[in-house]
Design a protein that fits this description.
The chain contains 11 helices and 10 strands. The strands form 3 sheets. The protein has a 4-stranded mixed β-sheet with strand order 1-4-5-8. Strands 2-3-7-6 form a 4-stranded antiparallel β-sheet, covered by helices on one side. A two-stranded antiparallel sheet has the order 9-10. The protein is about 50% helix and about 15% strand. The structure holds flavin-adenine dinucleotide (FAD). The site of flavin-adenine dinucleotide has 20 residues, from strand 1, strand 3, helix 10 and helix 11.
Length: about 400
């Protein structure tokens, strides 16, 4: 078979050098373009100011708009959720994170952690009560697993739920909780005496905001994810009725399955931040002149741009592959770890390299690269640190557990 002549080939597109759009169906492209246009209109014009202030004054409004777009609990079905494919959900994460990781975090925590937990592990009345309002962005959810002394190793958590008659009484503290003070409902994971001790006793509870003894003070002085609310959850003799517990989740497997779903969104989302960094560097390299010519004309800058483009589009291809496996019901948690480990690590590297291409301007909020790079420091840590995903893969590869 002879090779087609160059004239018959589609032109090289610097935004899509591998032609990955060919993998997408028309409805995938339509969803992607809708989310991209929303972010360009509602987030990008204001994000630098919000980031500098460390506050998004219209966050609740944005949540309702994201609900109207179908982006909240997007891949869930029923209860007002869009029932999108995993690939479509991933594309939305990518477009949102190309605007800012904080906005994508709002959507991930809402849909993949809080709503997913209720959808998968709740009983019908819990789903009816919470999910439609959450899908619409009227009610925001958060997911409290991490504690001040238990991050990578949540099995050691101290938050405790004790039976008192038919009620449950919760005491403890959660730390670094996205959406905490915004949330109308908190999914809180606590140790119980159910089951036979160990992590088998960990259960999920739905804690409505305003329940006596429950507060969510915000964590200040963050230098990353500044356009996202991060809070503590303080539980001081919080009394909940018997029907506040998620019946389907017993043991750490419950929260870990939610995290796997959210991590999948990060595999895509991180490539959005990387794309924004790469595109800023490419634009800058073709307009900024030094030594009498555009800096993009120097081989050293071209090497940076070529390496960034290779890692960016390899990462998108990997995300797409994992999305197809998820849609086929064949995605393993180790494969999600593979994607999160690679894509977040490469995204931060791309943004750091983009920062160098922009020289001094790279550190300014006038350009997006430093904002994305500092956001990615959080993304590198939450939903399992780099080291945790290396240990997950290490165990899968060798059959040897090196966690402790
Ligand atoms: C902005 C932000 C938002 C967050 N949102 C949420 C949220 O909504 N809900 C929630 O529950 N949590 C949330 N988190 C918490 C996040 O999931 C934890 O920070 C993360 O799991 C790591 O825990 P840690 O910070 O306690 O670090 P630690 O677990 O103390 O780890 C510190 C370092 O030690 C390493 N380490 C630990 N154990 C080992 C080991 N066995 N071998 C090698 N290295 C090891 C880690 O990889 C890391 O580098 C958020 C965090 C941030 C920064």
């Amino acid at each position: 078979m002879s090779a087609p002549s160059a004239a018959k080939l589609p032109p090289f597109d610097p935004r899509d050098p591998l032609g990955l759009d060919d993998l997408l169906a028309p409805e995938d492209l339509a969803i992607r373009d809708t989310v991209r246009a929303w972010a360009a209109d509602r987030v990008l014009p204001h994000i630098a100011e919000w980031y500098e202030r460390g506050e998004v004054p219209v966050l609740r409004e944005l949540a309702r708009e994201l609900g109207a777009l179908g982006a909240l609990g997007m891949s869930l079905t029923g209860y007002g959720c869009a029932g999108a494919t995993a690939v479509q959900y991933g594309l939305a994460c990518l477009e949102l994170e190309a605007a800012d990781s904080g906005i994508r975090s709002l959507v991930s925590v809402q849909g993949s952690l809080a709503m997913y937990a209720i959808h998968r592990y709740g009983f019908e009345e819990q789903k009816q009560r919470w999910l439609p309002g959450m899908a619409a962005g009227e009610t925001i959810g958060c997911f409290g697993l991490t504690e001040p002394d238990h991050g990578s190793d949540p099995a050691g958590m101290r938050t405790y739920a004790k039976r008192d008659g038919a009620d449950w009484v919760l005491n403890g503290r959660k730390m670094w909780i996205t959406n905490g003070s915004l949330a109308g409902v908190a999914v809180v994971w606590a140790r119980t005496d159910d089951a036979d001790g160990g992590s088998g006793g960990i259960r999920g509870f739905l804690v409505p905001a305003g329940t006596p003894g429950f507060t969510a003070p915000d964590i200040k002085h963050k230098w990353s994810l500044r356009a996202s609310v991060t809070s503590e959850l303080v539980l001081d003799d919080v009394r909940l009725p018997a029907d506040a517990v998620l019946p389907g989740a017993v043991g750490l497997r419950g929260p870990l399955s939610c995290l796997s779903h959210a991590r999948y969104g990060i595999v895509w989302g991180s490539m959005g931040a990387a794309r924004a960094g790469f595109e800023a560097a490419l634009r800058y390299a073709t307009s900024r002149e030094q030594f009498g010519r555009p800096i993009g004309g120097f081989q050293l800058t071209q090497a940076k741009l070529a390496d960034m483009a290779v890692e960016l589009h390899k990462g998108i291809l990997l995300a797409h592959h994992l999305g197809r496996r998820m849609d086929a019901g064949r995605l393993r948690a180790e494969q999600v770890s593979f994607g999160k480990l690679n894509n977040v690590r490469e995204a931060i590297e791309i943004c750091r390299t983009a920062r160098t291409v922009l020289g001094a301007n790279g550190i300014s909020l006038e350009y997006p690269v430093m904002r994305h790079a500092t956001n990615l420091e959080s993304v590198l840590t939450y939903e399992g640190t780099v080291e945790m995903h290396q240990l997950v893969l290490g165990k899968a590869l060798t059959g040897l557990d090196a966690f402790r």
